[in-house]
Structures are given as structure tokens and as C-alpha cells.
Amino acid sequence: MFLTYIGAEGGRNEVWYLDTGATNHMCGEKALFTSLEPNDGEVSFGDASKISVEERGVIAVTLNGKEVHRNDVFYVPGLKSNILSLGQLVEKGYCVRLRDGTLAMKDHERREVVKVKMTTNRLFTLRMDAKETVCLARTEEEEESWLWHHRMGHLGFTGLKLLSHSKMVEGLPMISPPQKVCEACTKEKMKRQMFEGGKSRRARRQLELVHSDIAGPFETTSVGGSKYYITFTDDFSRKCWVYFLREKSEALDRFKEFKAMAEKESGQPLKVLRTDRGGEYTSRLFDEFCKEWGISHQLTAAYSPQQNGVAERKNLTIMNMARSMVKGKGLPKKFWAEAVQVVAYLLNRCPTKSVKFMTLFEAWIGWKPSVKHLRVFGCVAYAHVPDHGRKKLDDKSEKCIFVGYAPMSKAYKLYNPVTEKAIISRDVVFEKDNSWSWDEAVRSTKGMFFDDDDEEDGGQEAKDEMGGAEQPSPPS
Ligand SMILES: [Zn+2]
């Protein structure tokens, strides 16, 4: 019926019909779209009629001088009215209530965003220039931006925007910075070091120069039993790899592992390794290994951290982000290693100043990474348990926490706080990552998580634990 209905109130671009019968938002005005992509599918209406939709995209409207976007809108040429699908809004987390001829809609935080009275034609219409619409649109858009801020490990909105606008990764929607500031970021007084700069001469190919540094020991042993981590950063691409150590003496073994993997991936030999003078790097065995493979090992001058600046700046960034992620989800300290691993993974998919117009991942391997599969670190996830692993009446899924990305296998790393077991699974259902309440988690996991009674102390505690060891260690 909407197909033929022409809005009585105002121009047809301004009025949107709130419709329970439509499966999708729809717009017939091509000019309102900022982006369109091919779509094969059809849209059904309340009266069971269907039409095919060849394009879908993002709508932008300018309101109060500000541009707002709505994603996933079908472009239906010839459609005379704009339609907002209530079903689609409900799916986004909005709550809709119809009572006494008034339609009220609330967002996931129970804030009222829309309230409209039924028209004489028994329709619910929304003017795009109405104030509540601004609110609604911004909320939806903001929600998405927040979600990606969390998925990308609290990457600043400037970085996120750059990543999406410059199309440096696959699968990231349009990002626009929200009005509010991120509490987790502010609380930790994060110093974003995304835009690290380097003045010294840069390597011209992969593995021409690799920077390495060790962080630790950490007060709390990680879930996997580690006390330290070691990073290897390729100077050319600035891509970074992290390995975990129980003892500093394992540094050489991890270096061998890294060398074999990185050389195979890039097809280039590792030429120069630059580290500080930590004992783990200056052992006889380390020296012998470098000589054997013709690797020139550069040791930075004592008390001159800027010489090994790349590795140390990387460590600072990793620690800041990891702290923010662990604290942000109220996870126990022992998850520092999982957080560090995820951060390294994310950093390789973030923009930096050192490599322009592409992610470190692309600079290393030559193609754009996708971020479609990213989820919020620490959120609740349900792993499907295969038949043979359970009794008939048991739960078919296991409630876990999402703690990382399994390398090479397109699977997720999960942790079950009850059984204290780690799980790798491809078959995972995530709790809507933007709306999880950790108060609930604290109760439901029997003291597994930090008590949130004293925010200040909690923050300090996490900082000491995770931050104490991150400082560039003076040469021993
Ligand atoms: Zn944040």
C-alpha cells in the first residue's frame, strides 16, 4: 500500500513511514544514498506482495548541519514513500510499543528516541527534520561506531574513521565519531600511539630489519603459564608478532620460531635484528645462532631507548590497549596474555603514521585484511558443543568468554570460566557485544571477575599489574 501512497505532510523526502509489514528500510530517492552496493534479494510487504531489490546502501541526511547515516536501506526505484522497517529497528536493539494510538520507541538503554501519534490515515510517520529523528539516527550510527571502537581494541575514532574512509580494511562500515568519550579509554588515561613516527632510515623490504623487545615479568602468570612476552616488529611493514615466555631464556627459541615463519611468509631472509642489551639477547647461544644464519645483531646503546624506539613504542601501545581491554570488560588479570595477543592482531589491522594508506598487515603481505570477523574481546560467547562431546540432555552450547582469534583457522579462542578450559571453535554465537552487562557476569561466574566495588582501586590494580613491566627495561 505504501508503494502508491504519497505523503501528505511535507515533501516525500522528509517523511518516513514506520511500518511493521516491511522487512527492510526502503527509499526510492537515489539522491539520499551515500553509497550503494549490488543486492540480490527481494522485499516483501504486509500485503504479501514482493519486489526485487537490486541495490542497497547507506542513507545520509543532513540535520542541523550534521550528517547522519542509516545502514542497510534498500533502494527501490519508483517507491514514492520512504519506509522505516520496525522489524529492522527492533533487530538493532530498539524497543517499540504501540499504545493508545501512539508509537513509542526506545533504544537499548531505554531512552525514548521516538514518539509519534497515529495520523488520520492510520499511519505512523516520522519527519526527517524532526528533532527525535536526529536522535534516533544518531543513536543507531553511534552504536555501530562504538561497537567497532570496542572490537578494534579501543582504537581512537580518528583512527577508525581513517580506516573506514580510506577503505584500508574489508568489512568496516562508515564510522563517525560519537559525542561522548569512551569511559574505559579516559579512565586509563590512554595515550594513543597509533601514529607512531620514525625519523630514522626505514628498511626497503620485509625482514631487512627486525626490532625485538621483551616485556615482563608480570605479577600474574597468564592462563597459559607465561610471565613475559617478546615482540618482533618488521621495520619495513611495522607488522608485529607476539610470543609468550615462561622464562626470559626462551627468547632464542621464540626468535627461531619467528624467523622460520616470517621468512617463509615473506620469501625474504632476515638480515638485521635490533634489540637492547638484555641478557636474553646477549647470551652465547643467541650470538651463535645469529652468526650461523648471517644475521647482524645490532645492540642499542645503554640507556638510549630511542635507538630501539620501534620495539619499545610498540610495547607501550600494546600494553595500553591490553590494559584498556582487560579493564574494560572486568576480566581477571590472568588474561593479560590473551589481551596482548589480540592487541597485536588488531594493531596489524589499524592505521599508523609509519605506513601510509594501508594497514601493517597489507604492507607485510600485500592484500587488505578483513575485519568482518572481529568481536569484542572479553564478551560472552556460546560455543556449539558437537554431539559426541555431550550427553543427550546437556546444553548444546557452552557459555564462554571470547579471548582471541585462532591463528590460521578462521576460528575463535574461547575460555570457559566454569571448567577453566580454553576452546577453539568455528561455531560460535556471540552475545550482542555492545550490550553486555558485566555486573551480571560477576554474579554468574562466582567471583571469577574483579569485584567492582571500588573503581579507582580496581583501575590502579589493573594498571600496576599490566603496566609495571611495560616500561622499556634499562639494560641489565
Ligand atoms: Zn575506548
TrEMBL record:
Keywords for the protein's UniProt record, in alphabetical order: Hydrolase, Protease
Q: What protein is this chain from?
A: Integrase catalytic domain-containing protein
Hey, what's the signal peptide range on this chain? Answer: none
The segments labelled Disordered in the record are 447-476
Gene Ontology BP annotations: DNA integration; proteolysis
Describe the location of the Integrase catalytic domain by residue ranges.
Answer: 202-368
- Gene3D superfamilies recorded for this chain? Ribonuclease H-like superfamily/Ribonuclease H
The family database entries (SUPFAM superfamilies) matched by this protein are listed as:
Ribonuclease H-like
Checking Pfam families in the record gives: gag_pre-integrs, Pol_BBD, rve, SH3_retrovirus
